[in-house]
Amino acid sequence: MEEITYKGDSVFENIPSLKDKALRINLNKDIYGTFAEIGAGQETVRQFFRAGGASGTIAKTMSAYDKDFSDAIYGIEDDRRYVTEARLRKMLNHEVGLIEKRIKRENHPTKLFFSYANTVATIDFAKKYKGHGWVGIKYQVAPDQEYNDIVLHIRFKENDARLQQETLGKLGTNLIYGAFYKYNQPKKLLRYLYDHLDKDQLEIDTINFSGPVFKDIDNRLMSLQLVKNGMTDAVMFAPDGNNVLPARVLYKKNILALRGSFRPVTKVNMDMYEKSYEMFIKENKVEKEKTQVIFEITLSNLRAEGEIDEQDFMDRAKLLCSLGQTVLISNFQEYYKLVEYFSQYTKSRMGLTLGVNNLVDIFDEKYYRHLSGGILEAFGKLFYKDLRVYLYPMQNEDGSITNSENLKVHPRMKELYKFFKYNGKVVDINDFDSSNLSVFSRAVLKMIMNGEEGWEEMLPEGVAKLIKEKSLFGCETEEVVHK
Asked: Domain check: are 212 and 291 in the same one?
């Protein structure tokens, strides 16, 4: 059977057909497991039945479609929902447990057990909600080894339930094949999930790998690949480093977002966050316990130096996570796209924490030439929402301060800026720490890379220590140099 050779996004050899993939799994005498598919029919297992030779591979296939029956098998979720990650993991664990219980290892010493599962809601009758779902596999690559997990969340883009079901079947087949034959190349495994699929059919916005064969895989790096490959526009990871579903984190929340390079995160970044957060939670309609802070890095920022440096990305991610922050990696160069994205999940008040230069850029018409309505269309999308900008001041070379009262935008934009400013959409952060105004990430980074002294004082507590311990951003401690 032909294998796939990729160079960038180009394919130079034929992609194996879905039948070939399923047949290769079926003809492997050691692979043996179950399929549990809820909500969109038996679309994945159908590929394996059609390919032939499935009797030695498929132990069981089931669809606990009725909710009461599903609850009787897998238990009742605390939130009473069925299309959730928790439900999927219960399904995987339950089914693997049954295989282990019913199949004696001594009689099958070479068997590699697996369970594939999905819990999915396809498009509704009114076509108001496109549908989404959780898909995963729990499996072994050696009979005496612990299980590995690959769990992902998908969003359907097609407008027909039957087409969505077929798409799910293709994705499931690609996942099972990749899990067994591409697990040692996880970046390629990700790309192969779209074999025989188009990105207009399906979005993958969350994925997590775990288990012995993925012990060296950082899920934050895998989430970066999703955006980099165009599989989704934004991914999110929590302080523990695992990818999380943005919809779950942002649903009906007040959102305060800070965009930056965070290369590295500095005292000025944290002062911007802390002071704007204090202002935000005092706003009307903002509840502290329902507020989510997001540190956002755009793909264009990651590409600022040319190609994306994955080690550089990981250095930034580790520092932000160490400070307990939730991080969003997005493909949204313009702020209005970021706000539109958040608006999918919440109607509550939002806040953007910006520096002066960022706000000036927002009022630059060149960023909106691709819109038929130009800057007015963008501003309608940006400020029409329940949004407020918290502006952090800038210190000029002569020591003077620029804030919302004296910043300069293009003459054509003056009246537009005044309109938003005097309607309370832009407010100044006045309680700032003036000692931080001379701190710039790029200057700190240069000092670190050049081995200069004094950069530690410009960073939040504990960050300098972590940079030295982990040798982040090319930092070389004396101990490393002497080695």
From this structure: no
pTM for the structure as a whole: 0.90
- Give the tokens for residue 29: 């005498």
Contact 227, 331 (CB under 8 A): yes
Contact 2, 16 (CB under 8 A): yes
- Domain span including residue 59: 6-217
In a domain, 441, yes or no: no
Is 150 in the same domain as 279?
no
Are 338 and 201 within one domain? Answer: no
Looking at the structure, do residues 306 and 208 belong to the same domain, yes or no? no
Q: How many residues does the chain have?
A: 483
User: Which tokens sit at 89?
Assistant: 């993991």
What are the average pLDDT values for consecutive 10-residue runs of the chain, which has 483 residues? 41 78 97 92 93 94 86 86 93 96 92 97 82 97 96 96 95 98 96 95 96 96 95 95 94 96 94 97 93 94 80 92 95 93 94 94 88 89 86 92 93 90 92 92 92 93 93 72 37
Residue 286: count other Cβ atoms within 10 Å of its Cβ.
Answer: 19
Q: Is there a domain that residue 80 lies in?
A: yes
Verify that 133 and 262 share a domain, yes or no: no
